[in-house]
Design brief:
The protein is α/β, with parallel strands linked by helices. 43% of the residues lie in helices and 10% in strands. It contains 20 helices and eight strands. Strands 1, 2, 3, 4, 5, 6, 7 and 8 form an eight-stranded mixed β-sheet that branches.
Length: 497
């Protein structure tokens, strides 16, 4: 029994069972010994087997805090300008896997020949420098000719290239300092849209853009750059923040469109896009938009209501993707090349319609061949237009943005061609036959007498006449029953008045 005294809970029971012959103060006898044994047996079972507890740290994936630790000494003067401890995005140290587009096969064959000649020169020790120079010249000429004559569907494939530099790649390359900002202040941070503050040449800008992934894992995390309503509300929050503090806005478009799912529609996808469109026309700060990949539908326009729109040479901008357009119009996705030509989606064609203000050239072979050079070209073009817009007053900036979109589109006044008018499609609805003149029946006459206007109130006088039964047509007027009915009707009418 003494072994149970170490526990306060057991000590209380131990004192009750300590002496079977003892009694309480009110004279009640203590419980018998059998009860004492049973209680002791329970407590003995509870303390016989000792319990040992331990913990072991399992090895697994490092968490966010371990992967991106906050430095002990945070300095605002960073030589590289990139605050790596404030963002989970890191420049990829691994060279991306080569991805060959279908129309690039002639280029690949020449590259293989150059590699074979170089390997042969290393093995034999012979000088093949002249042959290598000739092959390199031929390679450059083939690339120039090939990319100068790309069709719209081929430019679309370049814009969707998996190794094409993303929004954050360009931001890191062109900014002196960069801090990423998160959240829509409504409970969610959409990773498909990235926002932040950065400086270029001593000028602070607000950056907003769609972010694609560099591999399958990142694409799933970024939802393939298809934003939800939270992403557009986050972008709107940053726009208002920039408008309040006077920061010019630079937006980057690279999305196939807004995320079309049930939950997004339930949370107000259309309302979020429409709210952005309305609010962007009221901003007092300059807005410059750069299309770096593909810009799809309202998902792109929600951050693209700008003063100047710049497009990379191989970027596209469309209302509906060529595959979707072909499926709707031509009933087959195989007609996507034809739909791409009809849609006029390339930067060169949109420049003719004054939708795009400038086409930014890309390095030879596309932006993915030299991302740093592509970022440099973007920076020069953006700063050229931004310096012009910064000279305007806030009201002039708003009027300039509205005038840009009012001037979009072409139209021509004229009369309808008589040939087209003559060969218009016939009317599908059947032409009604002319009504024949028929003598009115008794039922028609009765319904016309009982007509009551729709706007007549219930308290108004009811003009309904007594119904005329069709059976009365067969009754002769000299019948005594008819005279009796007439006298009854006359007496009832007299009493009603």
């Amino acid at each position: 029994m003494n072994s149970c005294a170490f526990s306060p809970a057991l000590h209380y029971c131990h004192t009750r069972c300590e002496s079977p012959s003892s009694s309480s103060s009110n004279g009640v006898a203590a419980p018998p010994l059998v009860a004492e044994r049973s209680i002791v047996r329970v407590f003995q079972r509870s303390v016989v087997a000792p319990v040992f507890m331990g913990a072991k740290i399992r090895k697994g994936k490092k968490g966010r805090e371990i992967e991106y630790p906050w430095p002990e000494n945070v300095s605002g003067d960073l030589k590289d300008g990139y605050l790596s401890y404030l963002s989970s995005f890191k420049p990829s140290s691994i060279k991306p896997k080569p991805f060959i587009l279908p129309f690039e096969r002639p280029i690949v064959e020449i590259e293989k020949k150059i590699a074979e000649v170089r390997d042969l020169a290393k093995e034999t020790g012979m000088d093949f420098s002249e042959q290598i120079l000739e092959l390199e010249k031929k390679y450059e000429q083939v690339v120039k000719d090939l990319y100068a004559q790309l069709t719209p569907i081929q430019r679309l494939s370049v814009a969707r290239h998996p190794n094409r530099p993303t929004f954050l790649d360009h931001v890191i390359n062109i900014t002196d300092k960069w801090v990423e900002l998160h959240g829509d202040r409504a409970g969610y941070d959409d990773p498909a849209i990235v926002t932040g503050i950065g400086s270029i040449d001593g000028i602070t800008f607000m950056f907003i853009g769609h972010q694609k992934g560099r591999n399958t894992k990142e694409n799933i995390h970024r939802n393939f750059a298809m934003p939800t309503p939270h992403g557009y509300r986050k972008a709107l929050r940053m726009m208002k923040h920039a408008d309040h503090h006077g920061f010019p806005i630079i937006s980057f478009i690279d999305t196939p469109g807004a995320y079309a799912e049930r939950q997004s529609e339930e949370k107000g996808q259309g309302e979020a896009i429409a709210h952005n469109l309305r609010s962007m026309f009221g901003l007092k700060v300059p807005v410059v938009t750069v299309v770096i990949g593909e810009g799809g539908s309202g998902g792109a326009l929600a951050i693209g209501c700008c003063n100047k729109m710049l497009m990379l040479e191989n970027s596209v901008y469309y209302v509906a993707s060529p595959e979707a357009c072909a499926a709707i119009l031509y009933k087959s996705a195989k007609a996507a090349p034809k739909a791409a030509e009809k849609l006029k989606i390339t930067a060169q064609e949109l420049r003719k319609f004054k939708i795009s203000d400038e086409v930014i050239p890309e390095p030879l072979g596309g932006a993915h061949t030299d991302p740093f050079e592509a970022s440099k070209l973007i920076k020069n073009a953006v700063m050229k237009h931004m310096h012009e817009l910064l000279k305007m007053s806030p009201d002039e900036v708003k009027r300039d943005r509205i005038a840009k979109f009012r001037a979009v589109g072409l139209w021509q006044d004229g009369e309808l061609d008589t040939y087209r008018k003559r060969n218009m499609k016939k009317r599908d609805a059947p032409i009604p036959e002319p009504l024949s003149i028929v003598a009115p029946s008794l039922q028609t006459f009765e319904s016309s007498l009982n007509y009551k206007p729709e706007n007549m109130k219930g308290d108004d006088v009811d003009f309904k006449l007594p119904s005329l039964s069709p059976k009365s047509e067969n009754i002769k007027r000299d019948d005594p029953k008819v005279d009796k009915i007439d006298t009854v009707n006359a007496s009832s009418n007299h009493n009603s008045f």
